[in-house]
Amino acid sequence: MAITLKKYSLEGKQLGEIECIDALAQAEANGQMIKDYIVALRANARQWSANTKGRSEVKHTTRKPHAQKGTGNARQGSLVAPQFRGGGRVFGPKPKFDQHVRINKKERRAAIRALLAEKIRENRVAIIENTMMKKPKTSQIAKLLNEINLPGRTLILGESFTHEIPEEGKTSIVHVHNNAHRHFALSSRNIPGVEFQLANTISGYDVVVAHTIVMSEKALREIEAWLCQ
Fold first, then answer.
1. What are the CA-CA distances from residue 201 to residues 138, 150, 226 (Å)?
2. Residue 220: per-residue pLDDT
3. 212-216 and 3-8 as β-strands: parallel, antiparallel, unpaired?
4. Rounded CA gap, 15 and 75, in Å?
5. What b-and-e string marks burial along 59-81, b requiring 16 or more CB atoms within 10 Å of the CB?
6. What's the pLDDT score for residue 5?
7. What are the pLDDT digits (tens) for 148-170?
8. Edge-to-edge strand order for the sheet containing 125-128?
9. What is the pLDDT of residue 108?
10. Cα 77 from Cα 164, distance rounded (Å)
11. In the chain, what are the domains?
């Protein structure tokens, strides 16, 4: 049985329903694979640039804090010792070598496909007619989301624009940057918990942290072609 998604106009009026292909709506994936993919994404987002100085690197006086004997205190040799303020750090973080974790392309697509399918089966995905606006208007997007009535953090997806360049024996697809979604993106960025992205830039982490997903019909077809090829 085909799964259908509700379709809305930018004014929030329901225009009917559209079908989502089974390859996306019924997709499943191994839970451990999805977990490894998300962990790799978060690890790759780290800078690994934290740096602290040890006692041999701290620039400080070499004078003893106090006399060796006669004070009743424990003997101390230098103010660069870690127990003193401004002293070296014991086992502190250092910049690391490249910690990038390679993510298999097929596993990446399978994970995103399964995470999107889960949202679809839970009725947390809605379709909008398009994302074309004549001018930025936050109140219109707020009204749209209120009419759709999908609570929580919302990820809005617009279709990307591509240009095919024929080459000898193959066709290359180049992503074209334009301002088609500019007004929509400007209108939605002022609403707390709402994020706008292009369909070809999403990751599994974006899908996981979003409670609901709203996308244009063209964005849905683009995702189906990308993840279910």
1. 23, 22, 11
2. 93
3. unpaired
4. 81
5. eeeeeeeeeeeeeeeeeeebbbe
6. 92
7. 988 889 999 998 876 455 666 66
8. 14-20, 3-8, 125-128, 212-216, 154-158, 194-198
9. 94
10. 71
11. 3-46+103-227 (3.40.1370.10), 49-95 (no CATH)
Mean pLDDT of 3-22: 91
Q: What tokens does 38 get?
A: 């998300």
CA distance 125 to 213: 5
Residue 141 phi/psi, 5-degree rounding, is -70, -40
Query: What average pLDDT does the segment 213-218 reach?
Result: 94
List alpha helices for the chain, DSSP H.
Answer: 22-25, 31-44, 105-121, 138-148, 182-188, 204-209, 217-227
The length of the chain in residues reads: 229
Q: What percent of the chain clears pLDDT 90, i.e. is strictly above it? A: 63
Local structure of residue 177 (DSSP, 8 states): P
> CB of 8 within 8 A of CB of 14?
yes
Phi/psi of residue 127, each to 5°? Answer: -115, 135
Rounded CA-CA distance 215/192 in Å is: 18
CA 148, 150, 155, 157 dihedral sign is negative
* Structure tokens belonging to residue 226: 């990308």
Reference 205, options 48, 28, 31, 45; nearest CA is 45
CA distances, 165 to each of 109, 129, 160, 161, 162 (Å): 24, 28, 16, 13, 10
Beta strands 170-176 and 161-167, pairing class: antiparallel
> Could you tell me where the DSSP H helices lie in 78-178?
105-121, 138-148
